[in-house]
Every structure is written in structure tokens, then in C-alpha cells.
Amino acid sequence: MRSSTSQQGCPGTLAGRRDAAAGRLRVHTLGFDGILDTVLECIGSVCPATRSVVRQSIDTGLIGSARYSDQTESTNRDAIAELQHPLSPPILPRLHLTDHQTAGRGRLGNRWQSAPMALTLTLTTKVDPANPASGILSLAVGVAVARAIEFVCAPCRIALKWPNDLCSGWLVDPAGRERHFQKLGGILIESTAPRRDVAVIGIGLNLEHVPSLRDGSATPPGSLSGLTGRPVHRPELLAAVLESLSQAVEELFDDPGPLMTEYRSRCLLIGSTVTLRQNATVVQGRCTGISDDGALEILCDGRRRTFRSGEVSQVRPG
């Protein structure tokens, strides 16, 4: 992770673009508080530490605007609703943040209800749909969030379950007999017509409490505080996630190779026996890897097959 200290950047670099963005905001407002009033909409009372993180993220150009609500059904749904009103387009990248989400969605139409005071957010940002790297955006986001968690919660190690569940590494039960892992959070990326050049990136992380799992996953839920044995400061993690997302998206569209290498190093499935459910089809075999375009590779019945969708319901370590 980069230092949060502001540094002057050269034009064309990420730091340079942030300086330019912050400069443009200052030109059009009458000071820092004016910037925040212009681009941050609050529904409810946002804590001072979170407000400070959003303030700094806008000033450095990590995000262009933000909307906070103490409770909402779904931050992704809120973001998509905004995009469907072209007469008042949001300033991108746009952050949606809530303290409590009551009707969150997971992949394949599954549901997820966040635990109280989880880190629940959606980042709406522009992408290039013509770039093949857009097809592995969800994997890049998984790597980005894993990096952010490790930065804040060191020395923990975050693993990924294809395609982008955020998990603990393999754990051993108290009796030392059974290995398992816990789901710490998830990612859902959506798009909406007519804005195919915009990605709606939803992220949910369990900080202190373990939620009721409603997404059909067989992976038991866990929390970051349970994994680390100490409280997790939500504003600090929010800042790290926003910084890491910006960096990973830039890496993805510059050269996705290193990101995919890191993704594979974090993937729990490689080398394990997995059960994949794809509609009415159930496939069981050994996961041999993740292809460059993000597909899951499974060796079953002596034949290597690739899958670009589906739900991994069971994992047994190799």
C-alpha cells in the first residue's frame, strides 16, 4: 500500500491525476469543506473518522463523490438506480457507503444480509468494456481487497475462493483433525444499460460480527476480528480498500499478468478437490488452475475442463 501522505505527482501518473483532480475541485469550490458539501450526500449521521476518510479520498482524487446512508437495502441497487437517471449523472468514481445493508445480493441471485457495522460499500467507476482485461475485473478486485485487509490487519493472510470470495487461509479445528476456511466477505460486480462503460463494484466485509449466511454457500462465515483477535477500525480499512482498488484497477488495464499471478497464489481451490454447481450440472474434480481469462480449470474423468460461471459448493484440500 502507498503511504497516505500526499505527494506531488507528474502528469500521466496516478499521483499526477490525483493532484489534477484535487486542483479542479478546489477551483470550483470555496475551500475544503465546500468540496465535501458539494460531493458528499449524507442520509443519517456519519462518524467523524469516516467523514475524514471520505474527505481525504475526494481531495486526492481516489473518488469523485460519495453517498452515505446509515441503512439501505443494497448499495449496489442504489448505485444502479443513480446510473439509470442520465439527467443527473453522478461524479465518478462514486462511493456508496452504509452502516447496515438489509437486502444485499450475492452472485447468481443469492442473498446476503450484512452483519451490524460491517464494511459495506459500492464503488461505481469507469472501465473500458472493449479491453479484454475487463473480463477479469472481479478477480482483480478480490486481490485489491485482500491486499487492503492485510495492510490493516497484519500479519493475517487473506485467501480467495474463486471467483472472488474473501476468505481466511486453511484453519485447523481445535481437535486438530479437520481443515477448513471461513468466508470473511464477498464481492459482486454488476453493470447496467446503457452504461456498459461503468462497473458497479459491491464489497462486503465482516468486521466484528458474523452474519447469517444467506448466499447458498457451504463456506462457514467468519469475521476479521475473529481471525486477528483484535478489533478492526472500519474507517482505516475503508481508506485502505479505496487506495488498493485504485491501484489494482490501474495495474489491471496496464498489465494484468502480475495480478493474475498474485490471484493464483491466493486461490484456495488450486490443488484441491472441488464440487462445482452450474445450473443443474454438478462437476467434481481437482482444480488445476485459473486461466488467464479468469476461468476455473478442473480435471475430472481424466479431462481438463474450464468453467466461467458456477458456484463452488465444496472444497477438500489436496
Automatic annotation (TrEMBL):
<dbReference type="Pfam" id="PF03099">
    <property type="entry name" value="BPL_LplA_LipB"/>
</dbReference>
<dbReference type="InterPro" id="IPR003142">
    <property type="entry name" value="BPL_C"/>
</dbReference>
<dbReference type="InterPro" id="IPR008988">
    <property type="entry name" value="Transcriptional_repressor_C"/>
</dbReference>
<dbReference type="InterPro" id="IPR045864">
    <property type="entry name" value="aa-tRNA-synth_II/BPL/LPL"/>
</dbReference>
<dbReference type="GO" id="GO:0004077">
    <property type="term" value="F:biotin--[biotin carboxyl-carrier protein] ligase activity"/>
</dbReference>
<keyword id="KW-0092">Biotin</keyword>
<dbReference type="InterPro" id="IPR004143">
    <property type="entry name" value="BPL_LPL_catalytic"/>
</dbReference>
<keyword id="KW-0436">Ligase</keyword>
<protein>
    <recommendedName>
        <fullName>biotin--[biotin carboxyl-carrier protein] ligase</fullName>
        <ecNumber>6.3.4.15</ecNumber>
    </recommendedName>
</protein>
<dbReference type="GO" id="GO:0005737">
    <property type="term" value="C:cytoplasm"/>
</dbReference>
<keyword id="KW-0067">ATP-binding</keyword>
<dbReference type="Pfam" id="PF02237">
    <property type="entry name" value="BPL_C"/>
</dbReference>
<dbReference type="InterPro" id="IPR004408">
    <property type="entry name" value="Biotin_CoA_COase_ligase"/>
</dbReference>
<keyword id="KW-0547">Nucleotide-binding</keyword>
<dbReference type="GO" id="GO:0005524">
    <property type="term" value="F:ATP binding"/>
</dbReference>
<feature type="domain" description="BPL/LPL catalytic">
    <location>
        <begin position="70"/>
        <end position="253"/>
    </location>
</feature>
